Amino acid sequence: MPRERTRRSLPQLGEQPFITDGGIETDLIFHHGFELPHFAAFVLLDDPVGERALRAYYRQYLTLARDEGVGLVLDTPTWRASEDWGALLGYSAAALADVNRRAVALLEDLRSDAPAVVISGCVGPRGDGDDPADEMTAAAAEAYHAPQIRSLAATTADMVTALTLTRAEEAIGIVRAAVAADVPIAVSFTVETDGRLASGRSLLEAIEEVDAETERAAAYFMVNCAHPTHFAQVLLGGGASVERVRGLRANASSRSHAELDESDELDEGDPLELAQHYRALRGRLPQLTVLGGCCGTDRRHVAAICAACAST
């Protein structure tokens, strides 16, 4: 049965800091030697070795959260577990529904290892985000994402998080699908080096549009898959929508998306330097309670972020 109490009142909306995991795909590929076709980590659930690797990956963050006395938001490895990506990987609609359910069950099995764990069903963009061909209406986005969100909502997941979105229209559709499934939703946009979405829209304008079109139905917004130097000036510049941003999952690297896509090597950046960027932002924006990593980050980065932000 769904965890109705947590869904009614997400604990990360309070003042307690919550960490997330890091960049699951880049960690598993570059540090553990897994091949993830189309950057899809969910395929590991269908392989005993892969499932053991997922459990080990998540346990390190459960241990970190317990040792540091902070909360933990764990996203399922289902960023690519939607229809179009599933079809590329040979998954039917029924198989996708099953793998989304099993992803939540895996985290539910691990949940008791830390005191305050929020399980979030992870949803990703329909396309690659920066391709104009990926544009769609809010109605089309709602229809596309609804099956995955319904599958996640029928589990013990506390919420759903949509990561790495680049268009307000897709975010609107996702939020509407979550509302229809009666599950809390967090929306995370990614930006280019100039702090704007790939569509050219301002980050804060996109948040304002999503809120306006959905009656502020999203629990909160986040920024992920970009370095703090790309978006800090936007958040620190003020504006009515800044208060809606409660989470950061930054990349380790300050390179652009295009530069990272062309590289065959992992840019791990400097964990301590990244952590200081988080500390500076949280010092000015105390509503930032969800802090973790994205591409190129691992436990070292999240541990440094946790330590740097402990007193802010």
What is the number of helical segments per DSSP (H or I, 4+ residues)? 12
What would you give as the CATH superfamily? Homocysteine-binding-like domain
Q: Biggest sheet: strands, sense, closure? A: 8 strands, parallel, barrel
Uncertain segments of ≥5 residues (pLDDT<50)? none
Q: At the first level of CATH, what is the class?
A: Alpha Beta
Brief summary of the model shown:
This protein is α/β, with parallel strands linked by helices. 45% of the residues lie in helices and 13% in strands. The chain is globular and about 45 Å long.
Descriptive report:
By secondary structure, the protein is α/β, with parallel strands linked by helices. The protein has one domain: TIM Barrel (Alpha-Beta Barrel). It has twelve helices and eight strands. The chain has helices at residues 4-8, 24-31, 48-68, 83-88, 93-110, 138-153, 168-181, 203-214, 228-236, 257-262, 271-284, 299-309; strands at residues 18-20, 71-75, 117-123, 159-165, 185-189, 220-224, 245-250, 290-293. The chain has an eight-stranded parallel barrel with strand order 1-2-3-4-5-6-7-8, surrounded by six helices. Strand 6, helix 9 and strand 7 form a beta-alpha-beta unit. Helix 3 runs parallel beside helix 12 (299-309), helix 7 (168-181) packs parallel to helix 8 (203-214) and helix 11 (271-284) runs parallel beside helix 12 (299-309). The longest helix is centred in the first third of the chain and has 21 residues, at 48-68.
